[in-house]
Amino acid sequence: MGRAQAHRAGGRRLGAVTGRRARRTLAASVVTAYVGLQVLGRTAGTTARERRARMPGDDVVIAPTIVTDHAVTIPSPPERIWPWLTQLGWHRAGWYTPRWVDRLLFPQNWPSLDRLDPELVRDLRVGDTIPDGPPGTAWYEVDQVSAPHTLVLHSTTHVPGSWRERFGARIDWTWAFALRQSTPGATRLHLRVRGRTAPWMLTVLYQAAVVPADYVMAVGMLRGLRSRVRADAPTSGGLRTRP
Length: 243
Fold this sequence. Notes:
6-stranded antiparallel sheet
């Protein structure tokens, strides 16, 4: 083998080694990022003490297959934050998620409202429903409510009907909002989601896909709510008009 051929062969071997290293580095980065999203999807914004604490609604879903906790501090008292929770829902005020989330994932819904709407703010009672999709698809029921500190929403409707019929898919979950004054004029808003899914395929899908996505959805909602309260939205006007 001539010197030129040996040089080319050595270059190919070096390229192959470099390519394998690059692929391993990429794979390790993807795995690390996914693990990070799993952790953030379960705990973002909360302390270990908050995650250990009992919350209203913990007794509704027995033996959950997934529990996530997210929290944010809002520089306003609970009574200023509470009205924003009462107008949540599909074709109501939305969920205060980022605009790109609203457009990408919920194009049939309206953009999340940036103001309090007197027609939507209400005195929530046990048994009230909060829609989370077109009529007859998905909704929450108010399971517990104590204004302005506790709101527990319960749903068994967040599985497509075809999945229920074909696979026996079921989901039983709660969204529990707890508002407590952390310092004078500031509120700690803690959202805990507890869910039990079946069959095992749905449980795997939920933990693999929904938990990481919950970092975007739940944390985005809490931050969106905080930004609206901070902006003193009741006097700032809205960004959409109800049809």
